[in-house]
Design brief:
alpha/beta, Rossmann fold, 2 domains, 8-stranded mixed sheet, 10 helices, 8 strands, globular
Length: 304
């Protein structure tokens, strides 16, 4: 009995020490990371309807507009060079791209803090900041306000879907391995076509969930294109260099370009008839916990 008590006590002490270490490391990373956003963002976007100003990376395509535009949402590490490199690459194909900072100045490479940022950043706050990005895009003379879409990766994929359920003006939604929604009544409210790209070896999003998402879109009557890249882990389309090296990342990127050309570049002014619904995006604990494990120990840890 004494041995059992010692074991339990040891486990409790270890767990407490681990929690102290994690919270201390999060605080330390936050302190050391001040100013990181200034090395990435190149534009300050004024807050819309009383919201705070936000940082963003903005890149324009060559030539004269007005251009179709894409709001590109970063992964759960925040606005980093990996997302700005993809913004640059998309701009080369003729799109005005804005990559907003949805964590309000926080950028990290430390997984515990990335999870902390996701947990503590409210969907309502993110949507308000994305409203600011959208309003700013609408006001740009070289942007076609009728052709604004959204694309996101990882956390950003989930965020792009949630924002599309918030903003009925968006023309298209692109989701790279973000946790999907499967409720048909919710999916009916999406304002335009959806492209979903997922990895067959992504442990954070089971293939069965992807199929449920696809079936939900079908039942909801939303034009869609869902592709599962067999053998690919989470975050397999990680940066410009990875895309330009060929293989599945290049195929997935080119699939997005084709989708955008058909549904955004050549889009008419008529969108879908959107149903009215107030959508509050649930926090998908299982997805983010699996995501943390995948980034730390899974196939994704070898991707970056």
């Amino acid at each position: 009995m004494k041995i059992l008590k010692r074991v339990v006590k040891g486990i409790v002490i270890f767990a407490a020490a681990l929690l102290v270490f994690l919270f201390a490391s999060i605080a330390m990373d936050a302190a050391l990371g001040r100013g990181r956003i200034d090395n990435v963002a190149n534009t300050v976007i004024p807050g819309f309807n009383g919201a705070l100003d936000i940082h963003a990376y903005v890149v324009k395509p060559p030539g004269a507009g007005p251009f179709p535009a894409v709001i590109m949402i970063h992964e759960f590490m925040g606005l980093t060079e990996s997302i700005t490199s993809r913004a640059d690459l998309l701009a080369e194909s003729g799109y005005f791209v804005i990559a907003p900072d949805t964590f309000r100045g926080s950028v990290t490479s430390w997984i515990p803090r990335a999870i902390y940022l996701v947990v503590t950043t409210k969907t309502e706050t993110v949507n308000a900041d994305l409203d600011s990005a959208y309003a700013w895009l609408e006001a740009q003379g070289d942007v076609d306000a009728n052709r604004i879409g959204i694309a996101g990766f990882c956390y950003g994929g989930r965020t792009s879907l949630a924002y599309s359920l918030h903003n009925s003006k968006l023309a298209v939604t692109v989701i790279f391995y973000g946790a999907p929604e499967t409720d048909v009544e919710v999916l009916k409210t999406l304002p335009g076509p959806v492209l979903g790209i997922f990895g067959g070896a992504d442990s954070s999003i089971p293939v069965e969930t992807v199929h449920a998402f696809e079936n939900g879109l079908e039942q909801a009557g939303i034009p869609h294109q869902i592709t599962i890249y067999e053998g690919q882990p989470h975050a397999f389309v990680s940066d410009k260099e990875k895309i330009e090296s060929g293989g599945a990342p290049a195929e997935a990127w080119n699939e997005m370009l084709t989708f955008l050309e058909e549904n955004l570049q050549n889009r008419s002014n008529q969108g879908l008839d959107r149903l009215s619904i107030t959508y509050k995006a649930p926090f998908v604990w299982r997805y983010y916990l699996a995501l943390a494990f995948e980034h730390a120990f899974g196939l994704t840890s070898h991707v970056h």
